[in-house]
Design a protein that fits this description.
The structure holds two protein chains of two kinds.
Chain A (H helix, E strand, L loop, with lengths): L5 H19 L1 H38 L10 H11 L5 H7 L7 H4 L1
Chain B lengths: L16 E3 L19 E2 L7 E2 L9 H5 L5 E3 L4 H9 L4 E6 L20 H11 L2 E4 H25 L14 E2 L4 H10 L13 H17 L7 E7 L3 H6 L6 H8 L14 E4 H10 L21 H4 L6 H15 L17 E10 L4 E11 L1 H13 L7 E5 L20 H5 L7
Parallel strand pairs in B: 5-6, 5-8, 7-12, 8-9, 11-12
Antiparallel strand pairs in B: 1-4, 2-3, 10-11
Helix pairs in contact in B: 2-9, 4-6, 4-11, 6-8
The chains are: A mainly alpha, B alpha/beta.
Bound molecules: iron/sulfur cluster (2 copies).
Chain lengths: ~110, ~425
């Protein structure tokens, strides 16, 4: 996030000014308290618009694809034939699988 | 930054997301999107991120009205330097969700599918293309086979071919590094339920530096530089996990490159925003590019691979393949509508005949996105041994990776925050 981005600079100063005013005027603080709720609601509407548009884009990519099943991907099949053998083979296990760790032990 | 952290191992990046104290107004909006309660600070006071709890998902970043959260890791300069170095093969590993978002910072409408333009722009920048959709198809082969093995083990007592242990049901997907870290930091008892399959990004890196280096790029693995291009900030963390040097280990055992220093499977991760900055820095206007082909073996992908970016996509892709493998017959209809859409938890029953055992089985699957709102009841059920499901897909971000923490926001030109800002009283 660049610091000299105009859209943020332009937010910055008027708001820090008004924040000082808010501290003086109790009533406005209540308005400010309601702000995140309003913000979150309007943000969610716009977010869902973006989610839906992008989701549709990927489903269209699928619907128009010539091949739509992973096991029919010829490049993947070639990788197995020339190199990894088959799924869960020793080579696959070594390169394509992993292990996880318990991070709670460290926390407590 | 760089405070002492308890939930990171040596080499891991402790916290991809931090909050810029100069920008933060303490409005609390971020807290309402954070899945882990990692953000501390009173209302009205500057907030900060507790890196030990944070899973680096970036949801606070894309939802802050002031743009205060930022990524602590910015590899744009480093990748630009590698692209300029002619001895290095720079492999761009492009996630599904990038192709429907990268148009936005270049002024294209939201959701534009720009695969061809993206290939063209990236080739111009000097990348060799490895479409991560290819690795998604590979993930389905591994994770789907693993699921079939677990299911047959649970139902029919089948043993593992190589004598290894077989994990329990339900099997959770493991593509989302924020979800994986969520399990590791909150529900370690469920680790055996996570699929052992790596995420597509990590499979892509391991393949690129072994088979890819030898057969496709015809280069030494040390001179292959792999760049994940992701809708996701947590992928930057994932790439730093110390076990993900598997290509190096593999080559060492093979006797090749014994003397070389360890190299990671993925050298750098750019978010969609980072890629837009890189291209703009190189004066490449993606919107003006013509459609191009990927041009390598690794650019080949299927419709099943591409829907990985949507919530429900991994499950749908896995079901398509598992159905055919189990029954031996093709699917009449490829779309599994039940796992699509934005409902918090989606579930479906698929009844099919396992040809190997000649028995009918009903596979129960669930799809969860938006961890903050939806995961707790599901994991509690599994912990208590009451889960009705066999296979559960989890993605941290609401809607899946297409709404990931690395996707474009207003400062790259066009996302939804920009449209909301003017409605604020003081703006
Ligand atoms: S990155 Fe995700 S987990 Fe971390 S503080 Fe932000 S919202 Fe919370
Ligand atoms: S859902 Fe996708 S974008 Fe979001 S944290 Fe998980 S992998 Fe990253």
């Amino acid at each position: 996030m660049s610091k000299n981005d105009p859209s943020h600079e332009f937010m910055e100063s008027p708001f820090s000014l008004s924040r000082r005013e808010f501290i003086a005027i109790g009533g406005v603080i209540i308005a400010l308290l309601a702000l995140p709720a309003v913000w979150v609601r309007s943000a969610l509407i716009n977010r869902n618009h973006h989610i839906q548009a992008r989701t549709k884009g990927l489903y269209r990519d699928d619907a128009t694809a010539k091949i739509r099943l992973s096991h029919e991907n010829q490049a993947v099949m070639r990788l197995y034939r020339d190199f990894a053998g088959k799924p869960l083979s020793p080579v696959s296990e070594e390169l394509l699988h992993t292990k996880y760790i318990n991070r709670m032990k460290a926390l407590s | 930054m760089n405070k002492e952290t308890k939930t990171y191992r040596k080499g891991e990046i402790p916290g991809i997301i931090a909050i810029n104290t100069r920008e933060c107004k303490g409005c609390d909006a971020c807290k309402r999107f954070c899945p882990t309660g990692a953000i501390t600070g009173m209302f009205g006071a500057t907030h900060r991120v507790d890196a030990d709890l944070c899973i680096s998902c970036g949801q606070c970043l894309v939802n802050c009205p002031f743009g205060a959260p930022y990524e602590t890791v910015d590899p744009v300069e480093q990748v630009a330097a590698k692209l300029a170095d002619k001895r290095t093969t720079v492999v761009g590993i492009i996630a599904p969700a990038v192709r429907v978002a990268i148009g936005e910072p270049f002024g294209m409408p939201v959701g534009s599918l720009v695969t061809g333009k993206m290939y063209s722009a990236m080739k111009k920048a000097g990348f060799v293309i490895l479409d991560n959709n290819f690795a998604a198809d590979l993930t389905i082969m591994e994770e789907g086979t693993e699921f079939i093995q677990r299911a047959r083990h649970a139902l029919f007592g089948e043993k593992a071919e190589h004598g290894g242990e077989i994990g329990p049901l339900p099997q959770f997907t493991s593509c989302c590094p924020a979800w994986v870290r969520f399990v590791e930091t909150n529900y370690p008892a469920l680790i055996p339920n996570l699929s052992s399959a790596k995420s597509p990004q990590q499979m892509a890196g391991a393949v690129a530096k072994t088979y890819g280096a030898a057969q496709v790029f015809k280069a030494a693995p040390e001179s292959v530089y792999t760049v994940g291009i992701m809708p996701c900030t947590a992928k930057k963390f994932e790439a730093s996990r110390p076990e993900f040097q598997s290509a190096w280990h593999f080559m060492k055992e093979k006797g090749g490159a014994a003397s070389s220093a360890p190299y990671p499977d993925i050298d750098a991760v750019l978010t969609t925003r980072d890629l837009a900055r890189l291209l703009k820095k190189m004066k490449i206007n993606l919107a003006a590019e013509n459609d191009a082909e990927g041009g390598t073996l690794f650019a080949e992908y299927t419709g099943a691979g591409t829907i990985f970016g949507n919530t429900g996509g991994v499950m749908e892709a896995a079901l398509r393949t598992a159905y055919v493998v189990l029954t031996g017959t093709p699917l009449a209809r490829l779309e599994f509508e039940a796992v699509r859409g934005l409902k918090g938890v989606k579930s479906a029953d698929v009844t099919l005949r396992d040809q190997k055992y000649g028995k009918d089985v009903t596979v129960k699957v669930a799809v969860v996105h938006d961890i903050r709102a939806n995961i707790r009841p599901i994991v509690e059920e599994v912990m208590a041994g009451r889960s009705p499901y066999h296979f559960i897909e989890v993605m941290n971000c609401p809607g899946g990776c297409i709404n990931g923490g690395g996707q474009p926001i207003c400062d790259t030109g066009s996302s939804w925050i920009g449209r909301v800002l003017p409605s604020f009283a003081w703006s």
